[in-house]
Each structure stands twice: as C-alpha cells, then as structure tokens.
TrEMBL record:
The gene is argS. SUPFAM superfamilies: Anticodon-binding domain of a subclass of class I aminoacyl-tRNA synthetases, Arginyl-tRNA synthetase (ArgRS), N-terminal 'additional' domain, Nucleotidylyl transferase. CDD domains: Anticodon_Ia_Arg, ArgRS_core. Residues 450-565 form the DALR anticodon binding domain. PANTHER family: ARGININE--TRNA LIGASE, CYTOPLASMIC (PTHR11956:SF5), ARGINYL-TRNA SYNTHETASE (PTHR11956). This is Arginine--tRNA ligase. Residues 1-84 form the Arginyl tRNA synthetase N-terminal domain. It is an enzyme of class 6 (ligase). Its EC number is 6.1.1.19. Coiled coil: none annotated. It comes from Defluviitalea saccharophila. The lineage of its organism: Bacteria, Bacillati, Bacillota, Clostridia, Lachnospirales. HAMAP family: Arg_tRNA_synth. InterPro entries: aa-tRNA-synth_I_CS, Arg-tRNA-ligase, Arg-tRNA-synth_N, Arg-tRNA-synth_N_sf, ArgRS_core, DALR_anticod-bd, Rossmann-like_a/b/a_fold, tRNAsynth_Ia_anticodon-bd.
Length: 565
C-alpha cells in the first residue's frame, strides 16, 4: 500500500476528468505536518469544473471516501489535506504480513491462465557465455514473478540445436577434431574447433560450402550426420545443465529448434495456401513491404529452413499445446527485427492471437575487456565466471566472518546471487558492464548488500527468540524511519504486479535495495532488543516483515537468502 496511490484512487473517484497518473503527480507533501501528510491542490480543476478552488476542496471533503488509514481530511484554502493515522496504517500492513507470511505479495489473478516463457535458449555446441546469462536470469525471474501472481508458467528452453552451424561443426570435427579430444575437452573442445572453422573459412571459402552440404545431409536424415549432431548436443546439454543447477533455473520443456523439423512442412504449406509465399531468387519469402520491413525468409534456395521458419512453427505449436495468454521471448535487443518480422507473419496468417506474442529484449553484457562473441573465441564461459564469483566471495567471507558455519554454501549463494543481481538491477534494455568490484560490493546497491541485510534481520530475530504473532502495539511504529519501512513493505504486492506488467525484474531489484536501505536506517535509529516488551515486540514485528519481504524479493529474482552470512 502506498499512501499517495491510495489517496489518488480516492480522489480519482471524485475527479475523474483527470487521469489517475495526473492526480498522483499533483499530490504534494506539505511543508509542515500540521498541514497534513499529503495535500491535493484544486487550482488546476477550477477552469475545468468552473468553480473556485476552495469550493471544490470543500465539496470534495464532504463526500469522498474515508478509509481507515486516514485520520482526517480537511479543506484549507483550495487544498485538500490528508492526515494519516499512522498506527492504523502500520497495523494494517504489518498484521497482513504476519498473517500471510511467505505468501505476502502473492495473488491469484493469473488462475487458470497459461504463460509461456521462452528463455535462455543457448546454442548447442557453442559455449554458454555471459551474454546468455541475461536471458536466463531475466526469463527465470519473469517466470517466478508470474507464478507468484498465480499464473501457470511454462518455461521453454528453445535450444539452438539446428542450423548451419552444425554443418560447420561437423566439418571442423572431421578435419581437426577427434573422439578422444571431444570426450576429454567437452564443450571447450567443440568451441575450439568451431572457432578454428571460422578462421580457416576466411582463407578457404569452400569450407562454407562443405558445411552447408553437411547441414543439408542432416535435414535429409543422414545417419552419420545425425549421430554426430546428437553427440554434440548431449555434450552441450550436460554443460548447460551444470550452469542451470548453479543458477537454480529449471525448464518445463527443452523442445529446441530441432523439435520442429517434422512440423515445418505443414506450416510452409499453410503459408502457401494462404497466398503468403513468394519466390525470390529461388528462396521463399513472405513479403513485408506493406509494414516497412524486409521480407521474412521462410526457405533458402536449397530448400533449407531458417530460424524464423522454426519460430513461426513453434508459436503455432505452443498456441495449440498450451493455449497461452502470453508467449514471452527473452532475447538480446539485436533480435528485434527477427521477432517483429515473424510476429507480422503470424498476423498475416490470420491468427488473432498474434498480439499475445511478446518480445522482451535486453541490452548487451560486456566485460571490462569488451564485447563478447563466440566466433572470435573472446568469451568468458559462464560456469567459470560463476565459479570465480564463488571463490571471490569465499575470500570476502574469510576476511569478514571466518567462523561462519557452512561457508561453502553461503559463498555459493552470495557469489551467484551477486552476479544475478548485477544483471537484474538495471532496466533490462540497458547495457551491462561487468566489474567484479561493483558486483561484489557488500555496501553498494548489490545482491550481497540485500542478502546481508536479510541475514542481519534473521540474526535479530534469532537473538530475540520471541513469539511476535499477536498483541502488537502499533503506536510504537509511528516514528519516521519505521513508517518509511512500513510504507515500502506495503508497496510490495503492487511492485510485483508492475514488474509483471512491464516484464521488468529490475523493479523488484530496486525495490529490495530501497527496502534494505530503509531498514538499515530504522535499525540505526531504533534499538530493538530493549527492556520494554511492547516496544521490543512491535519492532520485532517490523523486522520479521522486512525479513519476509526481502527473502521473497530475492526469491523472485532467483537469488537465495542465507540466514547467516
Ligand atoms: N538460440 C537463440 C540465440 O542464442 C535464442 C532463441 C530465442 N528463442 C526463440 N524462440 N527464438 O540467439
């Protein structure tokens, strides 16, 4: 609950000529408390309602709704002043958290609705690098956020397990690889020969033709080609799953691109029968000139299909299988055109659900050394990055708290949490520059800072060891720093909804930083474990609420909340 928003809602019922947003932006915080906690100036309404501002304010005060949390509403020279009953306010929010516990912030608005979330989707035989981390953690968080709101979520890992890159890999394997080397080196060896292919192909372009013909063999069901492909796929998946385990991410389906191999013909026929296919230089395309986009390529001259062909087929398959309310695609910004094009093809096919397809783009991740690319081999493997995060965290813990129990687990939870939080803390469209000093700073606006604050709250509750579930004197919680914490706690359910609506986990990340900061101020201002039982219990109820919300917020981002650190 946010006072301002609540008050705006009351005013909106009275002044519906203004939008809710306009009303929110007009509400002021008066310079002194005797003029109320919030004030609404009626001057801008004078023209609209053809009445003097004091009259507008007076009339409104006589009729508007008075919820419990408002002690008084007064009209004073053209302003409507609102006085908050802080005790009631504290009571309504904290008692709600005490009652709902971990469920605080959940809702059932999504009951009976399916949301498909297509995320992570790394490319087989290429390594999982920090660029893929973003899709994985953003998608993973969107999954948890929607689930919290009662939706039935289906997480799909649309693996890049089909396409000409496998032709390249087969050529590279046959020329420069060996069974032993791949078995030993795993994905790193696959990456080495893949990079080598690109270097060699620059000198000898005929390698590209060779690669294409191996891919065509795959598409025609050639046994040798498919056996190699399957093997590369198994090796890659094994590696990916290690990373998912570290990140605590799971998928409901691993139907990747190859899953649609036997389903594309029917879709190509459908496109044809709907009169959408055009020949162009032997290729088949859907013309998108009318919407100012380059054509969407459906089959190449040699008859092979493309990324878009598989996405169109997959969308129709998913609609039939899951009857989704929304199908969300989390990929880098660079794929904007791809999604815009094939969404348009779905629309042209006459599917009215085209507007349920949502592309969720995100910015680039770079290390301080520069952009990442698989082809050039200038990549940081995600597993190595995560392991490094854990090692570095271990060192920090050894300095700060060498006697901590179960250090290994905590280092893993904090190290990985730090990397994940760093990726989610800014609007997703922004580029991220990865810097260890920033990511692991326990005092900055970071994952470890929030986790540390959570652990601090847990420690207070442990030391107090008091049952705080009933008879709380909420008068104790009306000082400014307590009220600020309570105000934020009250906003949590709303923030989750906003994050879902805008598909922005960063809203949650920023929110828990704000809450952690407000709590640390409260903690500094108010001694908790005091003699006076009533004061102690009331403050502990606030500590408990903070702990619960921080832990839920971290959970929604895919981050663990250790109780000690
Ligand atoms: N494999 C693709 C990549 O790494 C991402 C796939 C995203 N999902 C999709 N349905 N196109 O770029």
């Amino acid at each position: 609950m946010d006072f301002k928003v609540q008050i705006a809602d009351i005013l909106y019922k009275q002044f519906n000529d203004l939008s809710r947003e306009e009303i929110i932006s007009m509400i002021e915080i008066p310079p002194s408390p005797d003029m109320g906690d919030y004030a609404f100036p009626c001057f801008r309404l004078a023209k609209l309602l053809r009445k003097a501002p004091p009259k507008i304010a007076e009339e409104a005060v006589a009729v508007i709704e008075r919820p419990d949390f408002l002690k008084e509403i007064k009209s004073v020279s053209g302003y409507i002043n609102f006085y908050i009953d802080k005790t009631k306010f504290a009571s309504s929010i904290i008692s709600n958290v005490l009652k709902s516990k971990e469920k605080y912030g959940t809702s059932n608005e999504g009951e009976g609705k399916n949301i498909v979330i297509d995320y992570s989707a790394p490319n087989i035989a290429k390594p999982f690098h920090v660029g893929h981390l973003r899709s994985t953690v953003i998608g993973g968080s969107i999954y948890r956020i929607y689930k919290h709101l009662g939706y039935n979520c289906i997480g799909v890992n649309h693996l890049g397990d089909w396409g000409t890159q496998f032709g390249k890999l087969i050529v590279a394997y046959k020329k420069w690889g060996s069974k032993e080397a791949v078995e030993q080196g795993g994905i790193k060896e696959l990456m080495r020969i893949y990079v080598l292919f690109h270097e060699e192909a620059e000198k000898d372009p005929s390698l590209e033709d060779e690669a294409r013909s191996w891919f065509t063999k795959m598409e025609r069901g050639d046994e040798e080609a498919l056996a190699l492909w399957n093997w590369f796929k198994d090796i890659s998946l094994e590696e990916f799953k290690k990373v998912y385990k570290l990140l605590g991410v799971e998928f409901d389906s691993y139907a990747g691109e190859s899953f649609y191999n036997d389903k594309m013909d029917a879709i190509i026929e459908e496109l044809d029968s709907k009169g959408l296919l055009k020949e162009s230089d032997g290729a088949k395309i859907v013309d998108l000139e009318d919407v100012n986009m380059p054509p969407c390529l459906i089959t190449k001259r040699d008859g092979s299909t493309l990324y878009a062909t598989r996405d169109i087929t997959a969308a129709i398959y998913r609609k039939n299988t899951y009857d989704f309310e929304k199908c969300i695609y989390v990929t880098a910004l660079a794929q904007n055109l791809h999604f815009a094009q094939w969404f348009e093809v779905i629309k042209k096919m006459g599917y009215d659900w085209h507007d349920k397809l949502v592309h969720v783009p995100f910015g680039l991740v770079s290390m301080e050394t520069g952009k990442l690319s698989t082809r050039k081999g200038n990549v940081v493997l995600l597993e190595e990055l995560l392991k490094e995060a854990i090692d570095k965290t271990n060192q920090i813990i050894n300095e700060k708290n060498p006697d901590l129990e179960d250090k290994e687990t905590v280092a893993e939870q904090v190290g990985i949490g730090a990397v994940v939080f760093n990726d989610l803390s800014n609007n997703r469209i922004k580029d991220v520059v990865f810097s260890w000093d920033k990511v692991l700073n326990f005092d900055g606006e970071t994952g470890p800072y929030v986790q540390y604050t959570h652990a601090r709250a847990c420690s207070v509750l442990r030391k107090a060891n008091v049952d705080i579930e009933e008879n709380i004197d909420y008068n104790v919680l009306t000082d400014p720093s307590s009220i600020e914490v309570i105000r934020l706690i009250g906003q949590f359910p709303e923030r989750i909804k906003e994050a879902a609506e805008k598909l922005e986990p960063s809203f949650i990340a920023r929110y828990i930083v704000d809450l952690a900061q407000a709590f640390n101020k409260f903690y500094h201002d108010n001694p908790i474990l005091v003699e006076d039982e009533a004061v102690k219990k009331a403050r502990l109820s606030l500590v408990y609420s903070v702990k619960t919300v921080l832990s839920s917020g971290l959970y929604l981002l895919g981050i663990k909340s250790p109780e000690k650190m």
